[in-house]
Amino acid sequence: MNLDASVTKKGLLEALQAVDFALVETQLYLDAYPDSAEALEYFYRMRDESDRLTAEYEKRYGPLTPMANEGENWKWIDGPWPWEAGGN
Questions:
Q1: What's this model's pTM, rounded to 2 decimal places?
Q2: Is pLDDT of 80 > 90?
């Protein structure tokens, strides 16, 4: 997925959620069919895309998880919480 500056916060988060869903489903498939080279290649593509989208989201909007916090400030608490209006 190619992203440009016009992609909204919500749109970026939805894209990340879709990729992460595909990643989990592929993991479950591989648990049942571990010799599937096609599924393994797809898993790696989805993993790389998830990493890319996560990095882009965090660059634009801040950490998605507490473990992603970097720097001298605790940015994890900035902005609305996921359950608040306007949150993730």
A1: 0.79
A2: no
